[in-house]
Amino acid sequence: MWKYLSLLAVMMLTACESAPNLPPTDTIVAIKPIESGIIASSDKYSYRFFREGVPQEYQRYKTFYERFHEQASGVRVNFAVKEHDVTADYLVVIDKHKLDAAQHSALINEYKAVPIDNDRLGVMFKATGFWSSSYAPELAAPYRLERPVVVSINDQTQTVSTLGAIALIPLVPLFPLFMMYGCATGPCI
Q: Terminal CA-to-CA distance of the chain, rounded, Å?
């Protein structure tokens, strides 16, 4: 009986004390271009995105930016995280009132822009990479953004928090005692 209760307690503590590695939002304060891609950094984390695998997506974004950066009214950024891998979905919001007919057509046909509402279009870009702790030189003044960008983070990684690990430590030495008691007082399963 005790072994089942202790096993149940361990499972419940583990389930209750699991938490994602990253917060639900982060604020990107610096962007550093590197030869192989870009590094987007917050005060606490760095997100490194590389051109390998999808160089056409980076070229597509570069061309898009050169043509439409003045018409962009904002961005929405979401990071999907699993372990240390990050996939960034970058939605550029375009004000329709700032577009002429040729630009509107190019956005729809070349960039697969979708209507967000009556006044705005959205163009989606993706990048893949990984995250780590921030590194001070990546946050240097030349790479700082004038207006930081808030990103939402959907972290699928579940790890046991420090509190959960501490709560489990006292149960570990007791488990063999419960097993011995169960075997001594009844059938050993």
A: 11
